[in-house]
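Blinded run. Sample ID left blank on purpose so nobody reads anything into the name before looking at the predicted structure. Input follows.
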Amino acid sequence: MTDTLNNSTRSQAGIGRLLIRADASVSMGSGHVMRCLAIAQAWQDAGGEVTFVCAEVIATLADRLAGEGCELISIEAPAGSLSDANSVIEIATITSATALVFDGYRFGQEYDQRIALLRVPTLAIDDYGNVPHYLASFVLNQNLAASPSLYEHCSARTELLLGTKYALLRREFLRQNNWKTREYGNTQVLVTLGGSDADNITEKVLRAIIPTANSRNLKIRVVLGGLNPHVKAIAKFAKNHTFVDVHVNVSDMSEHYHWADLAITAGGRSNWEMCYFGLPRILIVTADNQRGIAEQLADYEIAQNLGSAKDFIANELVQTVCNQLSDHTWMDHARKIAASLVDGQGARRVVTKLINKPFNAFDRSFDDKLVITKEKLDRLVLRNATLDDAEILWIWRNDVVTRKASRNSDSVPWHDHIRWLNKYLARPEQVLLVAEIKGVPVGTVRIDNGDVSWTVAPRARGCGVGRKMVTEVVRTANVPLKAVAHSSNIGSQAIAMAAGFRQHSQEGEWLTFFRPVNCESATQ
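Blinded prediction complete.
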């Protein structure tokens, strides 16, 4: 972390502090941060404080966040890495965060799994089923085609927030009167192609439509994002045409949506803002992840979808602009349908969910309030594992420390884990046990054809759990047993020795231990 945190950062009142993890750059645009800003504002309106955590952020956006009263903390870890997740957990602890939101395509399965261990409600913003098995408290997909089928393998504890009911609109949009309060002359065209527009589609659009705009007496308003690297070139080109206005890095897009009769725009998240204002539009897909939104809006007859910017044809755009502005029936229909989809209360609904969500830790392996004394350790019980244990066994298996101590240090995908667990439980000769203390799972022991392995839950390590449960399992074994431990894993070696295993051989960094039948454990 490049910023130093202090006690003044802590939230002392109200609903506490919301932590938001999102990035913005010229290549990825500003959409993730800007839609999270809607949640930030709703959280502030409810009486809370907000901290953004960014690995990448442009200066103009940093200024915007500061102007909104949000704290910004920069981290140096690669976005989406475990180092990133650990930095977020550290910041959440220091700031006493009461909820966490993360938004970005680089936050994958391992990231979600690690973040879910935070003892606060978590929200993942997702557009297309980015993670096979979410553990977050909530998954938000605000798109029209958002479906539970995208998330059928989520944790049973994850609540899905799907559809435009949860479309995230910032305060500035809600301050404007809606579309019904104005008259339309079908002469005002808004051109806005996102926060960065690295490929300068904006200038291609302008060069295509300006001759027609001049002959049809159209007014064109161009809005460029603060990340756009082509501002000077576009402004210079537009300067020669009095009916073209250029606005850069605007803080209130609602004024421009309200002004326009028709928009030429990309297939990004700003479409839900335009829906709120009942704005018909022509769509140009500037990134692959926009295809779905563009197709959905075209299906609803809210927009005309021209497809990929790579296939941009100037004549097609000009013809579409002329056709749509002349088709008053389509324009009126598009306005009504668009406005019916988004009521502007999505961010408020999300914040209400976060505030009212009771804490539901996904790592139930060890409650922070449970101190494992010798007396409690003596109450450790072992039971057969079931499919209901799939999630916690998967979390333990993919824990960083566990993987480091395993021969196969790769992360295990959820689908592979479920397939393995079903097969394992179907074979009665194999043993898979879960250790519990007062009903709280604290570890697991497995015997597979005489090979013994074990995992202690991350929050139960160093308390004697491993020694206790392994000893209990192996002392009744009627076959010779084998265990393997890494040469650096002193803890596992000690557990094996205490359970009656003796070192037999070493191959590279791996030690092999054997335990004969009827061997007495060191603790007996």
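Unblinding after everyone has recorded impressions. Residues 156 and 440 are 18 Å apart (CA to CA).
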